[in-house]
Amino acid sequence: MQAGKASIRFEHPPLIVSEGSVVGRKEGEGPIGHLFDRVEQDDKWGKNNWEEAESQMQKEAVKLALSKGGLENTDIRYLLGGDLLGQLIATSFGVMELNIPLFGLYGACSTMGEAMGLGAMLVGAGYADRVVSVASSHFATAEKQFRFPLGYGNQRPYSATWTVTGCGAVVLESADKMEKKNKTDLGHAMITGVTTGKIVDLGIKDSMNMGAAMAPAAFSTIIQNFEDFGVEETWYDKIITGDLGTVGRTILLDFMKEKGHNLTEIHMDCGIEIFDPKSQDTHAGGSGCGCSAVTFCSYILPRIRQGIWKRVLFVPTGALLSTVSFNEGQSVPGIAHGVVIEHRP
Amino acid sequence: MQAGKASIRFEHPPLIVSEGSVVGRKEGEGPIGHLFDRVEQDDKWGKNNWEEAESQMQKEAVKLALSKGGLENTDIRYLLGGDLLGQLIATSFGVMELNIPLFGLYGACSTMGEAMGLGAMLVGAGYADRVVSVASSHFATAEKQFRFPLGYGNQRPYSATWTVTGCGAVVLESADKMEKKNKTDLGHAMITGVTTGKIVDLGIKDSMNMGAAMAPAAFSTIIQNFEDFGVEETWYDKIITGDLGTVGRTILLDFMKEKGHNLTEIHMDCGIEIFDPKSQDTHAGGSGCGCSAVTFCSYILPRIRQGIWKRVLFVPTGALLSTVSFNEGQSVPGIAHGVVIEHRP
User: Fold this and answer.
1) Does the beta-carbon distance from B104 to A105 stay under 8 Å?
2) Do A89 and B8 touch (CB under 8 A)?
């Protein structure tokens, strides 16, 4: 099942059987706001602080994914998840009461790709009938941890992105299990391959330009995917990055063009889709683990199920920003995890 | 290959073919100090700061594991690793130049168990011929992040543990690959099962008593392992926890006794083995991801290879301590990941 140097092709591709997406008010007001399962108006979700709010989002997204699939927590073998906060507190406190064996993951904003890739590998190998993959971010918890107190009201350069307040969760299931159920009217989405990212560092030292830090990682993973599977961009209906934003997208397209690949038409970036930069003052776009996770669940997945897109390369992108290493003069390396998702009638 | 509710039994158990352990001066002066591959006297490893030192330890430990196995970085399909620092900076910057596809993991001090468990699952499924699992901690980076500046010279209660400065790395290899090589004189160690932990929270709110926070998680994983495999403590020669220390060990043995299991003779804790509390002023014992990782590589693994211990349940334990959630009044939940390792002649 090894394909090439960093990819897996599944003999038994797991199905994405259900999903849940919850977001904050700003995301709900954006161009794809009507597609989310739940839009919460209170940025604290009725809790005492933003961190508890992010945990609550994780709980709600997972529970939504379970209930939409007609599943209980006891039907899930493993939960794979993460967030941007130190020690993954959004995830730890969020999923605790679900009482599911947990693999805690950290891939910065690429975490949804890591969680879906590893989750598909566990299901594909027969280690699990069903897993949940989940990732979240919250604008206020991320700004507090990585940048400035919100009350400080710092100015943001146009290269900066806006951390999405949201959580997306998917249930992955063995296709064998699925055969036993009645087929739904819609088609299915299945994960047919995984390309695992390496850390890529081109020396970006601007914490307000994460797109530039991540674009080389996205480039590396997409090129690796092409090589490992022996394909080109024409094999895909869409190649979708996580949160490069407008600055990162330009860099990615340039890098790809230099290698002879024209991605202008088929590339999409979740960070560009989720906000309207003109009316929402979000500059280069959305970012955070939640950005690709909620855009996948609400916008991408239904289009694959319906067969509008037959084959998608989904590449959540992460910038390994840390205030500690950054203040010590280190650069911001990137990582991107690729997942191949195909329509099945 | 699913066994019980949270465990896997491998049809093709992966072998632990090589390992590397590097530690700091204090660990080198401890009871098992003579067993480590490398003891560094400079707590900054010749680098500019402690974080870079911890990254350097990761690089050295992985390179040692590779060279002892006669391997290059290109022989490794995936690297699974983590550390205690926010955004996993020790791992990210440490393994970057190795250029290996990376799954970043966070399980607090249980990370070595998570990395070995997931790594074994990837090898066991045929997704990888070989993976590296690695985890590190550094006393100074951990104190700086979680507690007080070192210069403050705070007093530590007797329930506190001392974060180990060290990194351990193992190479896991498909047994099929191994058959093709000449057998070594010593026997082998193979991973035959995995029991994945859940988050367990009994409401501990003392950041200076991590043993108490982790003991219920160790208990949960060990009992789950017994149930899933239909065994008792007599099936194992040793049940080895990561860093409960003396306080956590007492709680674990009490909990187990209440369930009718006497672990007094066969339980061992890496945190208790690694320091001499009398001469080294380490109070309840050692802790940190590095504690179980280096003790495993230097002390436990050779004994399994030699057949001194035929079957071991290795249970690295993690306390999900975060200064943010802790200061917001939250408790410190625990998680423990179990790996079954057996001798093979």
Assistant:
1) yes
2) no
Cβ–Cβ below 8 Å for B118 and A114: no
User: Could you tell me how far CA B19 lies from the centroid of its own chain?
Assistant: 13
| B-contacting residues in A 197-216 (Cβ below 8 Å) | 197-199, 201
Q: What is the value of ipTM here, to two decimals?
A: 0.96
Cβ contact, residue pair A103, B124, below 8 Å: no
A230 exposure class (CB count in 10 Å sphere: 0-12, 13-18, 19+): exposed
Contact (Cβ atoms closer than 8 angstroms) between residue A147 and residue A207: yes
Express each pLDDT in A283-311 by its tens digit: 999 999 999 999 999 999 999 999 999 99
Closest CA to B19 of B312, B314, B300: B300
Q: What is the four-CA torsion angle of A247, A251, A252, A258, rounded to 10 degrees?
A: 160
Distance of residue B338 Cα from the nearest chain A Cα, in angstroms: 11
For the question of whether the overall pTM of this predicted structure is more than 0.95, the answer is yes
B96: contact with A, CB 8 A cutoff:
yes
Q: Tokens 């794979």 appear where?
A: A80
CA nearest neighbour of B17 among B240, B135, B169, B193: B169
* Closest listed residue to residue B315, CA positions, set B220, B186, B246: B220
Q: Of B13, B8, B308, B10, give the one whose Cα is nearest residue B179.
A: B13
Look up residue A302 and give its amino acid.
Answer: P
Question: Considering only CB atoms, which chain A residues are within 8 Å of B128?
Answer: 2
Classify B86 as helix, strand or coil.
helix
Q: What is the pLDDT of residues A145-169, one digit of tens each?
A: 998 888 888 888 889 999 999 999 9
